[in-house]
Amino acid sequence: MTHHRTLKVLGLLSAVCLAAFLAMGVVADSKRIDIEPETGLLKAPMKVYKSDAASGGKCVGTADKIVPQGQECGGTVKVTFTVATSGSYIFWGRAKWLDDCGDSFYVQIDEGQKRVFGEHGTEGQWKWFKLTGAKFNLSAGTHTLYIHGREDGALLDKVILLHESNGYVPQGKSG
């Protein structure tokens, strides 16, 4: 009977730990890291928006038309994540641009270079975009992703970092 109770308690603890990890908004395996930006620390004017079309029912971004055209809107989302397998990672983001003047963010990992993430011509719909021309060389361990506001009216639902050997192309809400 004691053995059965011990297994029940261990099972419950495992479930609680898994639920806590998933609530942090970061799910990882050895070649894929899923990040829900709305679980990160936000600095205004970046904020969380509700969206039934978003993978977790929420997304991050800035309101449209908060700064004059051509001026950066600012704001940041900061999310910590863990890499299990060292290597080169490709950045995918599921984003929605409200108009062609608000279709990009800056992406940065740790203290690395800020890179422009965005694409013209796909306003008004959620779509997966690949950060072109850049890969992130990440060691095993803890890292920090920063999403910096660049243009107002840009929304980000989810980020997936894929080890370059993975070859997967995200699709749908969950990727």
The secondary structure category is mainly beta
* DSSP summary, beta strand count: 13
Using the coordinates shown, work out and report the CATH topology: Jelly Rolls
Strand coverage percent: 35-45%
Gyration radius over CA:
18 Å
The structural domain count equals: 1
- CATH class bucket: Mainly Beta
Order of helices and strands: HEEEEEEEEEEEEE
> What is the CATH architecture term?
Sandwich
- Any idea what the CATH superfamily is called? Galactose-binding domain-like
- Characterize the biggest β-sheet: 8 strands, antiparallel
Q: Output the number of helix runs.
A: 1
What is the rounded distance between the termini? 44 Å
Average pLDDT: 85
Helix content: 10-25%
Mass-distribution shape? globular
User: Which residue ranges are poorly predicted, with pLDDT under 50 across at least 5 consecutive positions?
Assistant: 2-24
